[in-house]
Amino acid sequence: MSQLLRQVTLLTCRTPIAQSQRFRGKINIQRPRAPHYERAKVLAVAQSLQPVEEIDKSVACFTRRQRDADLENPYVTVIAREVRNWLEHSRMVGFYHLNSIKQDDLFEVRVKLHKQNMHLKAYGKHIVRKAVEGTRFEAILPLFESNNCIVFSPDQQVGQLLRITRRVPQMLLLAGIVDERLLSRNEFVAYSQLPGLQAVRGELAQTLNMAAGHLVQQLETHQKNLVNVLDVHAKGKAEETEPAKDATETEKA
To answer: Would you say residue 156 lies in a domain?
Structure first.
């Protein structure tokens, strides 16, 4: 009966037969087999270039980090060259101290400045020192003692820059450069209050015209005085001769 039920059952569960085997060959420790190609690549990358016997065990970790820091980083050199290029080709540069600010607010400020052809950048003190050391911009190094940002512009837009950053209290003006001249905060603000170039040119032209007219007036002063004196003298003689003529006419009559 059991055999009949076993034949009728369609789904039967049978345990698999597992048998452990052991290779007869021995492992060659002295001459191991070459690893797989992928594993060989990983082992070659992870292999130390310096032999283990030559590593100085007495070198401390902080000394090793200091030694690595002294090495010149090519990326730092490229960024420092970029900073120097911005400083040399910008007619207006503004240095700001940047307090804690949200990235969304900073992005909005960056967009507003970019619309006015101004660029907001942020660099570390080490990069700025490498960029300006030995140049005429070395005086700006004391400004980079904390978190800072720089605004570059190829045009003189001091007033526009101050109007945009005045709405961002997290950005504090420290100093600025206008036409290769370093200005303090007060001088930078005073420069923004000066009239435009066209107005200054008009005032200069007016001053020059006034100076020329004043010179002509000074040259013609003596001649005008002489003419006035002669005119008065001629009128005085005419008044003296008129009574004499009247007296002679009455005598004749």
So the answer is: yes
CATH number at residue 184: 3.30.70.1730
Contact 123, 76 (CB under 8 A): no
Number of Cβ within 10 Å of residue 147's Cβ equals: 13
Yes or no: say if 196 and 117 are a contact pair by the CB < 8 Å rule: no
Number of domains in the chain: 1
Q: 58 with 124: CB under 8 angstroms?
A: no
- Tens of pLDDT along the chain (253 residues) come to 555 445 555 556 667 777 776 666 677 778 888 888 899 989 888 887 766 555 555 555 656 666 665 567 788 889 999 999 999 999 999 999 999 999 899 999 999 999 999 999 999 888 999 999 888 899 899 888 888 999 999 988 898 999 999 989 899 999 999 988 899 999 999 988 887 777 778 888 888 778 777 777 777 777 778 778 778 877 776 766 666 555 565 655 5
User: Is position 117 within any domain?
Assistant: yes
What domain range is 103 assigned to?
Answer: 74-192
- Residue 45 belongs to what H/E stretch? helix 37-46
Contact status, residue 5 vs residue 12, Cβ threshold 8 Å: no
Is 240 within a domain? no
* H/E run at residue 229: helix 221-252
pTM given for the model: 0.55
Residue 182 lies inside a defined structural domain of this protein: yes
Chain mean position to CA 34 = 57
